[in-house]
Amino acid sequence: MSELQSVAELKAEYGVSPAWVDVLVDCPGSQGVYTYQSRPDLLVQPGDILSVPFGAQQVGGIAVRVGNQPPDLLPEQIRSIDSIVSAGFFPASYWSLLDQVARYYQTSLMQVVRVALPPGLLARSQRRIRLIKPDASEASLNSAAQQILKLLKSSKTKDYSWQFVQRQVKGANRGLQDLLKLNWVESYLEPPATIRPQLRQAVILVSTQGELSDGSATQSSVRQREILEVLKRNGGEMWLTDLLQHCRTTSPTVKRLQEQGCVLLQGREVLRSEHAPDVEQDAAKVLTHHQAEVLKKIHTVTAFEKILLHGVTGSGKTEVYLQAIAPMLQRGQSALVLVPEIGLTPQLTDRFRARFGDRVCVYHSALSDGERFDTWRQMLTGSPQVVIGTRSAVFAPLPNLGLIVLDEEHDSSFKQDQPAPCYHARSVAQWRAELENCPLILGSATPSLETWLDSQSSTYLSLPKRILDRPLPKIDIVDMRKELHDRNPSIFSRSLQAQLKKLKENNQKGLLFIHRRGHSTFVSCRSCGYVMECPNCDVSLSYHHVHETAQPILRCHYCNYTQLQPQRCPSCSSSYFKNFGSGTQRVVQEIAKLFPELKTIRFDSDTTRAKGAHRALLSQFAHGDADLLVGTQMLTKGIDLPQVTLVGIISADGLLNLADFRASERAFQTLVQVAGRAGRGTEPGRVILQTYAPEHPVIQAVQRQQYEPFVATELEQRAALNYPPYGRLVLLRLSGLNEQTVRSTAELLADQLLHSEDEVLGPAPATIAKINQRYRWQILLKLTSDRIPNVMELRSQCPSTVSLTIDVDPMNLM
Ligand SMILES: Nc1ncnc2c1ncn2[C@@H]1O[C@H](COP(=O)(O)OP(=O)(O)OP(=O)(O)O)[C@@H](O)[C@H]1O
Ligand SMILES: [Zn+2]
Ligand SMILES: [Zn+2]
């Protein structure tokens, strides 16, 4: 638990209000947490908005911590709080949470604030003064207070901005204090509701006739007609940006259409929350027996409780979340739903929107500052709502939280590796649920070992069957060594080919899963073995081939370094210089060669980079004439398309051979999840899993689709080696431009750690020893107890050229 004390506790203990307050100052040009002295007459609580002196100014700040421990500063360095602008602006528990994150992950509070809050929150808000006792008499007051009172009475709304009052009244501050004490006026912070609404250009179709160039078929008039046609098809109105993109045209062309009287350009105000398409209203589904049982249990939980919802793929977990949340909104409470990646959210958010309409808001780190800010403002209004977001949304400042859901809780993207704080949204969600005293639901078909082991201390709920008793797909394991032996050199086994042939006739769709992105993982020389590497990073370059006739390029996935693929080996000049492996591009090209009748869509980080691309590609696949979706890890995450009957796993081997103690767990989870995309509709599903290691225990476990036996074996191994979820880890990552300095710093730190009772592994170069010119070393601490040593102090021993990242409970050991 946090070491923070509530004001009530402090008062009980000391009989006084807290003496010191840490204030987050966030104004243009400076952002930081500073300590101020409180005043005996002020009862400052975390979450209050304060006015504090800063330099020569008075600025707004947020009280984040209060205490009676004198800070490590000279008395003359500490200034006093001016006043409380707005008490309880944030729930106090919110600041306890951020504080707890900072302490647990051993980073500064400011760094936590940076992931949690939109920048410049206070700078955009305005402090105002309002008269609350209209019949107040001025007689007994000092002159400044009298003037303020007079001023406020003269205002129609009985209120003015503090800035205005200060300009009108000399000594306004003292006058205000008196009035506040009398409770005749109140001081409040107005969130910038009306400030700078964003305007966006809309194009409206006025006439398809107009005075198009001259009626003749010049190239430009044909172009213009096309644009008008597109506008017409879209109901006569589109955002300018959408129209430009859609028609591949420029704004001067559209402006010319306006001059010709065909269209009208108009600035419109938009709320900058993520633009979502209209979704049809949807009513609650009649639950299956298992779903109903689970929901009944969830409804009985009203205080903090950790609930593991273990449901096989396609068992209808989302429907359970929806029906768990509905009564909550009715009671005026809000819910937070965390999902691993934004690629998965379009379908999920649509389902939530269909049920709850505009009470749903999407919050993730890819939002622009403006969008984040607007979404934030909506949250602080306190109206009951559902926030869906990725890991940073765990910090969404929703007041009155009734439930937190973490869907696909096993997913490692809930953990932030870089930059600090290296937090795990699952841990933070748990602390938050504890602080808010609300239930936390962790949902997964393949729970993480951490959660599984912990489920003894939580509520276990299970959905063992798919909805409507649909069967799990049948999984065939294909030994690729045998394929080669039987003279099938193709990346598709004979059984996968047979299934692919049947797709079109049966009017069904398939997914092909590849473990890596890009055309292949690396390029090497078949004569001398030379491997093309990135000059900045310690990784091989990946081969990218845009289309058959394009010049192939090589790219680094860490720093984006790009070069043309050389014709010959740079080392021995051999012309046998080829790419290996199989990535999405190669699979797409092979399909085009072998099955020209099948239409494919590529779904990986290259094709989904643009905003909204996930949604566009998935809906193209679901509603268009494409037969195959070819993709990477993204395919494993929650895609729910009833037409998909076939899942082909091109090669499972890359997953099995990762150098990480969690490799088996991850491989099992990924393979079960991707297999689970098949047969979710009325037609049963079929999975072809290709591998060079069919006897591998993970492959065997996946084929049987039995979670518990797999986990039991895996836990035994972890226990034997004292790895998580038994023994805990802390990883220290060091990096810098000078290899020698990084190395010697790592050695110095490791020496100091040797005195602790914990096991010190390393120092050693990281698996990827250089990224973006920075050399990387690491030290791994294997803890012998649950007590996490404080390694913050080691920071002072690092030269300024070496950066140290502390990763508590690391997920990524590369
Ligand atoms: N009670 C029900 N009756 C009919 N259809 C349902 C019911 N519950 C859920 N469904 C449908 O079943 C499908 C699978 O549900 P859902 O996507 O929630 O499963 P899931 O458990 O989240 O799966 P996964 O973990 O594989 O993503 C969805 O299309 C959903 O609309
Ligand atoms: Zn060579
Ligand atoms: Zn690089």
Automatic annotation (TrEMBL):
<dbReference type="Pfam" id="PF18074">
    <property type="entry name" value="PriA_C"/>
</dbReference>
<dbReference type="Pfam" id="PF00271">
    <property type="entry name" value="Helicase_C"/>
</dbReference>
<feature type="domain" description="Helicase ATP-binding">
    <location>
        <begin position="298"/>
        <end position="465"/>
    </location>
</feature>
<dbReference type="InterPro" id="IPR040498">
    <property type="entry name" value="PriA_CRR"/>
</dbReference>
<keyword id="KW-0862">Zinc</keyword>
<dbReference type="InterPro" id="IPR041236">
    <property type="entry name" value="PriA_C"/>
</dbReference>
<keyword id="KW-0413">Isomerase</keyword>
<feature type="binding site">
    <location>
        <position position="556"/>
    </location>
    <ligand>
        <name>Zn(2+) 2</name>
    </ligand>
</feature>
<dbReference type="GO" id="GO:0006269">
    <property type="term" value="P:DNA replication, synthesis of primer"/>
</dbReference>
<dbReference type="GO" id="GO:0016887">
    <property type="term" value="F:ATP hydrolysis activity"/>
</dbReference>
<feature type="domain" description="Helicase C-terminal">
    <location>
        <begin position="564"/>
        <end position="718"/>
    </location>
</feature>
<feature type="binding site">
    <location>
        <position position="572"/>
    </location>
    <ligand>
        <name>Zn(2+) 1</name>
    </ligand>
</feature>
<keyword id="KW-0238">DNA-binding</keyword>
<keyword id="KW-0639">Primosome</keyword>
<dbReference type="GO" id="GO:1990077">
    <property type="term" value="C:primosome complex"/>
</dbReference>
<feature type="binding site">
    <location>
        <position position="534"/>
    </location>
    <ligand>
        <name>Zn(2+) 2</name>
    </ligand>
</feature>
<dbReference type="InterPro" id="IPR011545">
    <property type="entry name" value="DEAD/DEAH_box_helicase_dom"/>
</dbReference>
<feature type="binding site">
    <location>
        <position position="525"/>
    </location>
    <ligand>
        <name>Zn(2+) 1</name>
    </ligand>
</feature>
<feature type="binding site">
    <location>
        <position position="559"/>
    </location>
    <ligand>
        <name>Zn(2+) 2</name>
    </ligand>
</feature>
<dbReference type="GO" id="GO:0008270">
    <property type="term" value="F:zinc ion binding"/>
</dbReference>
<keyword id="KW-0479">Metal-binding</keyword>
<dbReference type="InterPro" id="IPR041222">
    <property type="entry name" value="PriA_3primeBD"/>
</dbReference>
<comment type="similarity">
    <text>Belongs to the helicase family. PriA subfamily.</text>
</comment>
<dbReference type="Pfam" id="PF17764">
    <property type="entry name" value="PriA_3primeBD"/>
</dbReference>
<dbReference type="Pfam" id="PF00270">
    <property type="entry name" value="DEAD"/>
</dbReference>
<feature type="binding site">
    <location>
        <position position="528"/>
    </location>
    <ligand>
        <name>Zn(2+) 1</name>
    </ligand>
</feature>
<feature type="binding site">
    <location>
        <position position="569"/>
    </location>
    <ligand>
        <name>Zn(2+) 1</name>
    </ligand>
</feature>
<protein>
    <recommendedName>
        <fullName>Replication restart protein PriA</fullName>
        <ecNumber>5.6.2.4</ecNumber>
    </recommendedName>
</protein>
<dbReference type="InterPro" id="IPR005259">
    <property type="entry name" value="PriA"/>
</dbReference>
<dbReference type="GO" id="GO:0006270">
    <property type="term" value="P:DNA replication initiation"/>
</dbReference>
<keyword id="KW-0235">DNA replication</keyword>
<keyword id="KW-0347">Helicase</keyword>
<comment type="function">
    <text>Initiates the restart of stalled replication forks, which reloads the replicative helicase on sites other than the origin of replication. Recognizes and binds to abandoned replication forks and remodels them to uncover a helicase loading site. Promotes assembly of the primosome at these replication forks.</text>
</comment>
<dbReference type="InterPro" id="IPR042115">
    <property type="entry name" value="PriA_3primeBD_sf"/>
</dbReference>
<dbReference type="GO" id="GO:0003677">
    <property type="term" value="F:DNA binding"/>
</dbReference>
<dbReference type="GO" id="GO:0005524">
    <property type="term" value="F:ATP binding"/>
</dbReference>
<keyword id="KW-0067">ATP-binding</keyword>
<dbReference type="GO" id="GO:0043138">
    <property type="term" value="F:3'-5' DNA helicase activity"/>
</dbReference>
<keyword id="KW-0547">Nucleotide-binding</keyword>
<dbReference type="GO" id="GO:0006310">
    <property type="term" value="P:DNA recombination"/>
</dbReference>
<feature type="binding site">
    <location>
        <position position="537"/>
    </location>
    <ligand>
        <name>Zn(2+) 2</name>
    </ligand>
</feature>
<dbReference type="InterPro" id="IPR027417">
    <property type="entry name" value="P-loop_NTPase"/>
</dbReference>
